[in-house]
Amino acid sequence: MLHAQAERDAAAGIGLANSELALNQAQLLSEKLLQQAGAIRRGFIDLAFARILARAPKPEEASLCCEFLLKSHKGVAGTTGFPSFRQHAGSKAAAPTPTLDAKRGRDLVLVLFNHNDFVSIR
Fold first, then answer.
1. 100 Cβ neighbours under 8 A, 6+ residues apart
2. Average model confidence (pLDDT) for the chain?
């Protein structure tokens, strides 16, 4: 009986952590952080940690977050580094400029929302 309740509680927690509310709030915060940090990965990471966890990232955390933001999205053929690229305005032949991908930024914010330092009271 206790095992079944624990499974229901875990499923409810996962549902809440990845709910539409959490996704929407992660998107809103990510957009604000992208405006402040621009395409600077480390700036985005530092701002996200400060806003969500009220502290700076540890070196290992910063490294893992950078790796996460650098991973290419599937479906973006032939790209490495940042997964999204944009053309310079007004020029069809301009070289692509790497940018911080908004979806990856949102996903990182969502991960930090689910961080044990954010969801636990000490």
1. 34, 37, 38, 39, 40, 41, 44, 69, 82
2. 73
Over the stretch 48-87, which tens digit does the pLDDT of each residue have? Answer: 999 999 999 999 999 999 999 888 544 343 434 333 333 3
Instruction: Please report, in angstroms and rounded to a whole number, the separation of the first and last CA atoms in the chain.
Output: 29
DSSP state of 19: S
What string of H, E and C letters represents the secondary structure of 56-102?
Answer: CCCHHHHHHHHHHHHCCCCCCCCCCCCCEEECCCCCCCCCCEEECCH
Q: How far apart are CA 18 and CA 30, in angstroms?
A: 16
SS3 content of the chain, % helix, strand, coil (to 5): 60, 5, 35
pLDDT surpassing 50 at residue 20: yes
Half-sphere exposure of 10 (CA within 13 A, CB side): 6
Q: What is the pLDDT of residue 61?
A: 95
